[in-house]
Design goal:
Layout: E1 2-7, E2 10-16, H1 21-36, E3 43-48, E4 56-61, H2 67-77
Antiparallel strand pairs: 1-2, 2-4, 3-4
């Protein structure tokens, strides 16, 4: 599950509920590939803040980026279940 969160320094996307640490790494790598290919713009940083109690991938946006638009674009390129 991914959600957009607003904070004083800007917007970020929180991705929770990935099944395990390997899934977080796969999603993070796919994001890096999309950014490097120029298909996704507006991301300033990607952090894996997962712990033993759950997975959390934080995608920090640039100040001028629209997190919902980035999330929509990323969703187009991610595999879906079923």
């Amino acid at each position: 599950m991914a959600e957009v969160e607003w904070e004083p320094s800007g917007q970020r996307i929180l991705v929770r509920g990935l099944p395990d640490e390997d899934a977080v790494k796969v999603v993070a790598q796919k994001l890096y590939d999309l950014i490097n290919d120029g298909r996704v713009k507006g991301v300033s940083d990607i952090c894996n803040l997962s712990t033993d109690s759950g997975t959390l991938l934080v995608i920090q946006m640039r100040r001028d980026a629209d997190a919902q638009a980035v999330l929509d674009e990323v969703s187009k390129h991610m595999p879906t279940d079923g």
